Amino acid sequence: MSESQRPGDLTVPGATGSAEEFRTSGAAIGAWSEGRAASIVTQTVPRTVQGILLPVDRLLTTVTNLATAGSLVFSVHPEAETREAARRASELANQALSRLLLDRALYDAVEAIPTGSLAPAEARAREKLLLQMRRAGVRLGAPEREELQRLSDAIDETQNQYMENLANRVRTVEVDDPARLAGLPEDYRAKHAPGADGKIRLTTSYPDALPVVTYADDPDLRRKMVDAFSLRAYPENTSVLGRLRELRWKYAQLLGYPNFATYIIEDKMMQKPEAAWELVDRVDGLLRPPADRDRARIEAKKAELTGKPGPLRPEDVAGGMANGYYEEKQRVAVYGVDTKALRAYFPYATVRTGLFGLCEELFGLRIVPTPQAPVWHPSVDAFEVRRDGVLLGRFGLDMVPREGKYNHAAQFDLRVGVEGLQLPEAVLVCNFVPSISEVSESLMSYSDVVTFFHEFGHLLHAIFAGHTPFLLTSNAWIETDFVEAPSMLFEEWARDAALLTRIGRHFRTGEPLPREIAERLVRSGIFGRALHWRSQVAYSAASLAMYERDPAGSDPAAIMSEMLGRFDPFPRPSGGHMECGWGHLTGYSALYYTYTWSLVIARDLLGTFYERGSLLDPELARRYAERILSPGGSRPPAELVRDFLGREPEYRAFERWMTLDPSPAAGASDRS
Predict the structure, then answer these.
(1) Running DSSP on this structure, what letter comes out for residue 77?
(2) What pLDDT, on a 0 to 100 scale, did the predictor assign at position 4?
(3) pLDDT tens-digit series, residues 216-258
(4) Are the C-beta atoms of 47 and 115 separated by less than 8 Å?
(5) Of 296, 24, 261, 250, residue with least CA distance to 148
(6) pLDDT bucket at 169, cuts 50 / 70 / 90
(7) How far apart are CA 275 and CA 594, in angstroms?
(8) For the chain, which residues make up each domain, given as ranges?
(9) What is the mean pLDDT of residues 277-302?
(10) What is the CATH number that goes with domain 19-101+103-136?
(11) Is the separation of the CB atoms in 399 and 439 below 8 Å?
């Protein structure tokens, strides 16, 4: 990754900044940003783009750089002291951003810019900034603005506390006999040898936990892992989440909204919670029949293998964490697809090479390793992205779990790209590779391959959109309920049988994944799809309810239990506390429906590829990059989608994809 950059006159640490550098920049950011804002407002220049809007955008960019760098380093750095300093710097940067949005003199200066001769990007930047300042409460009186600032600062600090607890409160399951690991992949068992006391310790980190709940033959071991996973950051986050809900409720009420969900959805594509609930109910009604069908087949498989008919238990279906034990048994029996054995065809390094090659073929990108780039941990790999010899951006891959690191999968911005100012820099933070010594030979599950493509879709969006003229028109300011569409779309390349035969290579022989197996793998993915997406519907409902209801009269655990009981097809551990281990309740708040809505859009966009007969159509892929990814937030997402499709978006492709017949006799195509 690059060294520190200075779009303003304040030094902002990069991803390898020290604790002291973050402390210094954090301590300076408030006074510096206020001074810069005052100098912009009081200068004797016309109220124009060059005189006001551009300097304000550059000010916001510098403060955002500290916020994004601090957030990344807080999530990945191996040293606790640096993580804490980065966290505090990020909080102070976000506080500075909040103060800027509440600066009435700054608002008046931007509002005074005449609109008659503005270019589209300039008008969009002005419009976005004024809207967000109004939503922040800039037109309220001074006492109300001060209270909003206090609440905003407290919300940011509370969110960080929730995520810190989630990263640090890893639970452990002890195994006293290696035989209890029967059913797990051979390489997994080899890497989990007994310690000096004869016990094997398995953590709730993803590389440890997911194989157990999917493959372990021992139902008691699966149960213990599901139970432990459901209690991550419990009880520590009980009070933290309670405080976060209270703060957000007060914030929304002070701004005149009935609840936080109404406030946070207002400027998104959905515009109001009622529309999000309509999406939830529509998709749930669509998915119930196929989900019930697939669940009945899993129950029948369990009865066949155990001789004990009866309802499914959490350890039978992974508690909704991943593909469950009997779901996998059904795949083997019906489709001849053993995802455990197929891991041999997906070595991490080979998948990564295939993914990079795909980006070159589709988008004309050249991804170049930069081994001399400074990184925060030896396991991190850094790259540059070029097209036609021009440097478009940089990214890092942080794939090894470690203490204190973010324990799921996500794309983080280090620098949001702004044309002529700074290149986009992004980082994929995942946990696919068990240890630093296994980066080259680690085998991936197929579900991890799909996740890799998903997160890389976010990264491509960040790289392509990082060249708009303002931070305010970058994808950092795009509507949240659109941001998952590019990642959902890019997953599809990991579901294409022809491509799987190219990226799937046996780790010992180098032989490609046979086409027939790839086609069966794609077909088998239809089985259980409705079940897992009904679970996503349950999460969407839970996030909406969590921020619609008055925290004074509702309990987060009760809301979670209610919505899972109403929508979720999977049995859950009776004593689980998912609300304490679900990071989306912080950043996404009430917006978890984003995943479902973005998938509706993504399936519709993908239809254009299938109409052309191939996902590997570089002309169409580059048109997609040009019209959907590159504009970032310079135009409303609805306009981008209409421009690409030539019509309004529709549900038809989404509904067909969700209700496909999973039987082998239905054929191998999974196309919209």
Answers:
(1) -
(2) 45
(3) 999 999 999 999 999 999 999 999 999 999 999 999 999 999 9
(4) no
(5) 250
(6) confident
(7) 12
(8) 19-101+103-136, 169-229
(9) 97
(10) 1.20.1050.40
(11) yes
Could you tell me which of 466, 399, 386 has the C-alpha nearest to residue 426?
466
Say if residues 343 and 211 touch (Cβ distance below 8 Å).
Answer: no
Rounded to two decimals, the pTM is 0.95
SS3 394: strand
Q: Sheet harboring 410-415: ordered strands across? A: 366-369, 381-387, 390-398, 425-429, 410-415
In angstroms, the CA 541 to CA 554 distance is: 15
Q: Using DSSP bridges, classify how beta strands 390-398 and 425-429 pair: parallel, antiparallel or unpaired.
A: parallel
With a CB cutoff of 8 Å and minimum separation 6, the contacts of 150 are none
- CA-CA distance, 232 to 586, in Å (whole number)? 15
Burial of 232 (0-12, 13-18, 19+ CB in 10 A): buried
- Residue 10, Cβ neighbours under 10 Å: how many? 18
Q: How far apart are CA 293 and CA 530, in angstroms?
A: 9
Work out the average pLDDT over 193-205: 94
Q: For residues 321 and 229, is the Cβ–Cβ distance under 8 A?
A: yes
Residue 15 to residues 26, 396, 415, 531, 618: CA-CA distances in angstroms?
15, 10, 10, 39, 34
What HEC string does 567-622 produce? HCCCCCCCCCCHHHCCCHHHHCCCCCCHHHHHHHHHHHHHHHHHHHCCCCCHHHHH
The span from the CA of 411 to the CA of 397, in Å, is 9
- For residue 418, the 8-state DSSP code is B
Q: How far apart are CA 36 and CA 486, in angstroms?
A: 36
pLDDT at 197: 95
Res. 441: pLDDT tops 80? no
Sequence-distant (≥ 6) Cβ neighbours of residue 45 within 8 angstroms: 51, 52
Distance CA 25, CA 86 (A): 10
pLDDT (tens digit, 9 = 90+) per residue, 363-396? 999 999 999 999 999 999 999 999 999 999 999 9
Give the chain's largest Cα–Cα span.
Answer: 84
Query: Please, what sign has the CA dihedral across residues 640, 646, 649, 653?
Result: negative
Cα–chain center distance at 488: 11
DSSP of 190-255:
HHS---TTS-EEEESSHHHHHHHHHH-S-HHHHHHHHHHHTTTTTTHHHHHHHHHHHHHHHHHHHT
Cis peptide before 235 (omega within 30 of 0): yes
